[in-house]
Amino acid sequence: MKFTELTSLSDEQLVHKELALERELTAFRFRLFTNQLDDNSKLKKIRKDIARVQTAARARELAQGLAPNGLRDRFKSTFQAQALGGRQEGSSFLKGVVDKAGGNE
Predict the structure, then answer these.
(1) Engineering a disulfide at 99: which of 57, 66, 74, 104 sits with its beta carbon 3.0 to 4.6 angstroms away?
(2) Are the C-beta atoms of residues 25 and 43 closer than 8 Å to each other?
């Protein structure tokens, strides 16, 4: 993902992108610890994508005069983890653990 791709997203889409990436990172960490992850470089790529999204979100917060994490606080409640586009990995137990660990309560 490139930073220029993030500029075309709305504030809500940007926050949802960050939450989805955090959920994906948590799922990959579980897979890494259970020796089910084939490519360890995915963790680094996802962390960098999260940093890009957070940088874009903070730039928008500064432009709008919001406090840090203001956009995230505003749109976090509208995030639905089920709408990730077919990424239904693992058991339902693991999905619940990932949701709680990622703060998607």
Answers:
(1) 104
(2) yes
Helix (H, G, I), strand (E, B) or coil at 49: helix
Q: Which residue has the tokens 């998607």?
A: 104
Task: Locate the domains of the chain by residue range.
Answer: 3-79+87-98
Q: Are 56 and 14 in contact (CB under 8 A)?
A: yes
Provide Rg for the chain, Cα atoms.
14
pTM over 0.85: no
